[in-house]
Amino acid sequence: MNFDILMPLFLFSVPLAAIFLARRAEGKLKSTVEEKEFRNKDIVLFGVLIAAAVSVIIFVPSFTVLALFLFSYSSLLFTFSYAYSDMHLRNMRLYCGIFIVASVLAAIAGFLGVMPADLRIYGTLAFAALAACSLFVLLYAQGKVDAKQKWYLAGLSPALFVLLFVFYNQTHLWFPYLLDVYAILFAMLIIIYLAPMFNWKIMLAFAIGITALDTFAVWGPSNVMYQAASTLTNLKLPVLAWLPNIPLIHTNNGIWLNGLGLGDLFFTGVLSFQTLRKFSKKTTILSLIGIAISFGLFELIIINPGSAISKLLPVQALPATLPILIGWLPVVSVKMLIDRNKPKPEMQTAAAKQQ
pLDDT higher for 343 or 176? Predict the structure, then answer.
């Protein structure tokens, strides 16, 4: 029987890294972006928007979907880059240096033939221009090292992403390598940005509602979630992270790859962040271990086509929110039960006085 250890480990490690970064970034983002906490009506609206977006993706033209996602991703990159653009000189040099090196390497790779032939000249010139702009921004910003955010620093990250997508999305460098890099990056940024906006009660309502919606969308008669994911995957957008099954599974089409959506990483991140807020690091890590184990067991259905376990539930895809919630609930429920049965500090003090 085939099994997988990489994707469960991935589902454990990415949200874990994101929630600890979110705790450190929370104050910084609040000072840059308007502070907000979700309410019940916001969660209902959130669910409605997700359902509408999934349905619309199937019917609207591909170019519209592409433009919408590229704009959303670029806005997210700009927001985070802008929040941290009041950096010290050393960090500014490192930041701009990364974009200069990345742009030069992308231009060289394109010139050497990695890009499609019809885009090679334009792509090489575009990345050369971005490298020149990054150098100019560095020289300009060095004379303005202060506590203010700088939009021209923040604009480098979305510019690099858009150029890489436009000129490399049909190459082997984009799928799965660059696509996975950006999928992980966007998943972590979404967790860092949105997870603190929940509270415990709102998170529970969100968890139940989004799991029910996801399960119906994936296993329902319309199978709309699978169709939407296929559409976005064909557009080469970083909406899923694709990782090889470990141990490797070889097929007629090459190595078997497992995909996990950004929404599932975000869902795990929200659960974990609120668990960390309410309980402790230990409980958070244990809940993530439970999620990873649960997901790995559900994954057996997909990676063992034709086996007895897959015949019990013959499906094309998994609503990953279901095993995530199933893995998280027992750990948190036990922790809440233990805390409820603990004597309160006032009772312990009264008992000590009586003795």
Answer: 176
Share above pLDDT 70 across residues of the chain, in percent, rounded to a whole number: 91
Task: Please name which of 154, 84, 164 lies closest in space to residue 119, comparing C-alpha atoms.
Answer: 164
Residue 144, C-beta contacts closer than 8 angstroms, at least 6 positions apart: 150
Count of CA atoms in the C-beta half-sphere (13 A) of 314? 4
Q: How far apart are CA 321 and CA 326, in angstroms?
A: 8
194 found inside a domain: yes
Residue 216 has pLDDT above 90, yes or no: no
**Side chain identity at residue 144, one-letter code:** K
The residues, any chain, with a CB within 8 Å of residue 155's CB and separated by 6 or more, are: 78, 81
- In a 10 Å sphere around its CB, with 0-12 CB exposed, 13-18 middle and 19+ buried, how is residue 238 labelled? buried
Give the C-alpha separation, 272 to 286, whole Å: 10
Q: Which residues constitute the domain of residue 273? A: 6-60+172-332
Q: Average model confidence (pLDDT) for the chain?
A: 88
Whether residue 202 lies inside any domain: the answer is yes
Within-domain flag for 144: no
Closest CA to 191 of 307, 97, 274: 274
Number of domains in the chain: 1
Q: Which of 112, 107, 233 is nearest to 167 (CA)?
A: 107
**pLDDT tens-digit series, residues 288-310:** 999 999 999 999 988 888 777 66
